[in-house]
Amino acid sequence: MSHIFDNDKPVTVRAVAKDTNTPHEVSTSSPSSSDIPKSLADFGPDEGWFVPVSVHALFLGFVPIAEYLARLRLTTHVFNKGLGAFTWAMAGFGFNSSTKLLSGTAGGMGVAADKKIVALGLFYSVVTFVGTAALSITGQTIGRKEGYQNYEPRRGKSELKGMAHRMVAAHQNVLETFPLFALTAALVHFTAPTNDHLIELVALHVFSKTFLYLPAYVLGIDAVRSASHFISIGACLRALTLVALSA
Known about the structure:
- The protein is mainly alpha-helical.
- The chain has helices spanning 50-71, 74-79, 82-90, 96-101, 116-143, 162-191, 196-219, 222-246, and strands at residues 2-6, 9-13.
- A hairpin with a 2-residue loop joins strand 1 (2-6) and strand 2 (9-13).
- Helix 7 packs antiparallel against helix 8.
- The termini are far apart.
- The relative contact order is 0.12.
- Residues 16-31 and 104-108 have low confidence and may be disordered.
């Protein structure tokens, strides 16, 4: 504030600073929200009441679908011989332990009939803890300007966007669902290790997660990603139900 004189009378002049932070320059929304494509499965803020109903309906609705797919024996064709070759390679190309798994091929997967669940567990463990771990590290490497920093490996995950974010998220999801697979596989192996239908349900979970869910997640094909996730969970729930009924 300053004073000047006009005709010998003091006049007060106030200096007003310009506010550069005008309202139109302030954004309260997420800067990346507009970059996310819309999906049929999106829920608005006012649809929270509908989420529990729809989620329960989807998960339980895919249980009979998983049962139907298991009866088609589709995964048997995928894992035929290939699973045995994978186990043989993991055992050291002819090591004595591999011959025990490969000694019986009546189940059609190249492994002994009572060891198919074990072989599936080995394969899916490698996918989960080795394959998707490499996927997550790759996502962090290409998605951050600092690259991957091993000293604090999880620090920059929240900064990732696009494919890099999806690569990390895919790894996290298979880690979250692995306990359900492990429980299902263990109960099936110890209660009915040669039951073809139960083994098919376990294999359906592995197939859905490995060959459908992971590629769809990384590539951003949300419909396939969601459907394969529901099928994989439905397969485990169906197998657990059958085990419970047979106990």
